[in-house]
Amino acid sequence: MRSAVAVILFSVSALAQDQNAVATARAACGPAPVSFAVKADAKQHPTPAPDPDKALVFVVEDLGQCIDCYGGRSIVGDVTAALVKVGLDGSWIGAAQGSSYLFFTATPGEHHLCANWQSQLEDRARSFAMANFTAEAGKVYYFRIRLFPGQGDFVFDLDPINIDQGKYLVASSVYNVSHAKK
C-alpha cells in the first residue's frame, strides 16, 4: 500500500515538474489568446541594414522543397497556409504565413524566441518551437521555421541558420505585414 501511494505521489510530482518546465519554456512566447492577421506584401522586400546599437533578426517560414506541400493533400498534410506567431522574451512580435519572412530588432543580450502554430485545430495550436540566442549590436541573425507534413503528423521546428542560407531564404520569400487581431 505504501509503495502504491509513493508511486502515485512521485508521478503527480513529476507531472507538476513537467508542467512547470513547459510553462517556463513557453514564457518566451506571448499570451495564448493573441492571434494575428497576416498579409503578404509583394510590393515590398525590405532587407534593412542592422542598427549599430541593436541586432537585426529575420525569421523565415520555409516550406522549402516539401514535395507534398503544394499538391492536393488533405487538410492533415496541407501546411501552405500555416500561420505561425513569433514571440520574443514573452511578447508576440508578429507572424509569418506560407514561405515568408518578418524581421525585428533586438537589444544586445540573451533572448528567447518562440514560434507557435496559430490554428483552430487543437493539435496544431499546441505546436511550439523555441530557440535562444545572444544578440550583439550591429549583427544580423536568421532563424527558420519549418513545417512539413508527415505520415498523419507534421514536423514543426525553429532553428538558427547561417547568414548565407538566411539571405537566400529572405530573398526567395515574400515579406509579411502582420498585426494582432482585436
Radius of gyration: 19 Å
**Average pLDDT number:** 82
Number of domains: 1
Termini gap: 54 Å
Structural class: alpha+beta
Strand content: 35-45%
Sheet with the most strands?
A: 6 strands, mixed
Number of DSSP strand runs: 10
Shape: globular
Count every helix, treating DSSP H or I runs of 4 or more residues as helices. 3
Which series of helices and strands comes N to C?
A: HEEEEEEHEEEHE
Low-confidence region ranges: 5-13
The largest beta-sheet arranges its strands as: 1-10-5-2-8-9
Q: Helix share of residues?
A: 10-25%
What characteristics describe this protein?
182 residues; 3 helices; four-stranded antiparallel β-sheet; alpha+beta; 42% strand; six-stranded mixed β-sheet; 10 strands
What does this structure look like?
It is a single chain. The protein has 182 residues and is of the alpha+beta class. It has one domain. Helix content is 21%, strand content 42%. It contains three helices and ten strands.
Write the layout of secondary structure elements.
Layout: H1 2-26, E1 36-40, E2 55-62, E3 83-88, E4 91-97, E5 100-106, E6 109-118, H2 122-125, E7 128-135, E8 140-149, E9 154-161, H3 163-171, E10 174-180
Parallel strand pairs: 2-8, 5-10
Antiparallel strand pairs: 1-10, 2-5, 3-4, 3-6, 6-7, 8-9
